[in-house]
Design goal:
274 residues, alpha+beta, 8-stranded mixed beta barrel
Length: 274
């Protein structure tokens, strides 16, 4: 499954349009070639320092060579706004790795109080997730991290099952609740196949085994490279009850049987039944 990304044009000095275009056209081959040399100039270093980690497949161009489609599409990547985009299948916005989480779509409400007794804590687990917009109605299991610190995923033999990171907060409680799921298996689409279609304002319902229900409202969505995953933004502590949904996206690597990117949905608690 692929998703288009929104692009913006790089900022340029104030020059007459015709002169500016001519100057940039003449200078571009030199700048690209210079980028591959050991003695990179201060100007190029400054530009690269602004760039989000984007693996765009570009490389210095040989004299007279034409840039690839990928290079053209990502030419302005370093000036993308440093915020999580509203997302949606028509244009996921890659955010800088140090960008803050998106602002809530609706006023936040107080979290569900944490269980006070060991028995109550043991009884409370997320049991089901429903996302009406993309017709998700799926059971929630549990996942944890492996010895390398990688977050586990539900079994591929259960494509409709999602996984709650069991060391993240219970749905509705303070902090970021983490739930993931597959986008596809070898047999076809999986539970989060349409996750990238969500947009700011969509509702997500997470049911708990103790009868409590947390309704979240989507705040933002983004597509990020697995090589530069924004760990702090996704897993970092929050002031209120929030939800993170994670699946795969972007280009599929047939040799590695994996996708290059992740789709991350950010949502904030907007209603609760306790």
């Amino acid at each position: 499954m692929t998703s288009e990304q929104q692009q913006t044009q790089p900022a340029q000095p104030a020059q007459p349009a015709q002169k500016r275009k001519s100057t940039l056209n003449k200078a571009m081959p030199g700048l690209l070639i210079a980028g591959s040399l050991a003695g990179v100039g201060a100007v190029m270093v400054g530009l690269l320092s602004l760039a989000p980690p984007v693996d765009d497949g570009s490389s210095p161009l040989a004299a007279g060579a034409e840039p690839s489609t990928v290079q053209i599409e990502n030419a302005g990547a370093f000036v993308l706004p440093p915020t999580v985009g509203p997302g949606g299948k028509s244009g996921l916005t890659p955010a800088r790795i140090d960008a803050p989480p998106p602002v809530a779509a609706v006023p936040t409400i107080a979290p569900i109080p944490a269980a006070k007794t060991a028995k109550a804590k043991a009884a409370a687990k997320p049991s089901r997730i429903k996302i009406p917009k993309i017709k998700v109605n799926a059971p929630v299991g549990q996942v944890t991290v492996d010895i390398k610190g990688n977050l586990g995923t539900p079994s591929l033999s259960k494509p409709n099952q999602t996984g709650w990171y069991r060391f993240s907060p219970l749905p509705g409680e303070n902090g970021p609740t983490i739930i993931n799921g597959h986008v596809s298996t070898r047999k076809g689409p999986a539970v989060f196949a349409r996750l990238s279609e969500l947009v700011k304002g969509d509702n997500i319902y997470v049911y708990r085994s103790d009868g409590k229900i947390a309704r979240y409202t989507v705040s933002g969505i983004e597509q990020v490279s697995k090589a530069s995953f924004p760990t702090n933004r996704v897993y970092g502590n929050t002031d209120g009850a929030q939800l993170r949904l994670i699946t795969c996206g972007g280009v599929y690597n047939k040799a590695g049987h994996s996708y290059k990117d992740n789709i991350v949905v950010y949502a904030t608690l907007s209603k609760k039944k306790v």
